[in-house]
Amino acid sequence: MSNQELDPYTAKAENTNLTPQEKIQGLHTIVQNVKTGMLTTRSASGQLHARAMAPAGPVDPNQVNLVFIANRASAKFDEIENDAHVNVSFYDESTTNWASYAGIAKISQDKSKIAKHWSSATAAWFGDLGDGVHKGDQNDPRVAVIEVIPDEIRYWYATRGKVGQAVDVAVGAVTGRTAAPGELRTITKAEIQLVQGLNSK
């Protein structure tokens, strides 16, 4: 039997009929509702470390990159410099929607990028150290941008509420039919490159 036959849930849930823009719109809905994702990096010893981080934006309707403002002195920067492959995941408990970004993280201290994504709330994560240099503002030398450029994005978009999902699962359990109360969507590398090309024009 083929993998498709052995995994009827994925076969039933996958939606390949959407345009890249439609997929991005659904993705943005999840990211904006959840607000905080888990950025996972790999240490030099091979351990995977995840931490909660809130991305700035999205600021553009076709944006697929994730941008984080972070403290350059934190260990995650050492891990990104050791291995730039990262994952960022989001989960919305209220809907069961989730999203997973797999890609490359790039570090920058470009002042224009920092200014574009800086907010007054961000300063609280840095604090003023009282030395006249590390003031916790956007000019603080600790402030850096982590931009995650995805190779692929996969996400689940629920098409039924929690009650409808529970009914679908219950019916599947009784009848033997596969439950799929939502859609699995993939934004491929080719689609990401297409959208990034449109954004650069």
From TrEMBL:
Which InterPro entries did the record assign? Split_barrel_FMN-bd, Stress-Dev_Protein, YdaG_split_barrel_FMN-bd
Any signal peptide, and if so, which residues? none
Annotated ranges, domain General stress protein FMN-binding split barrel? 23-178
Species source reads Trametes coccinea (strain BRFM310) (Pycnoporus coccineus)
Annotated protein name in UniProt: General stress protein FMN-binding split barrel domain-containing protein
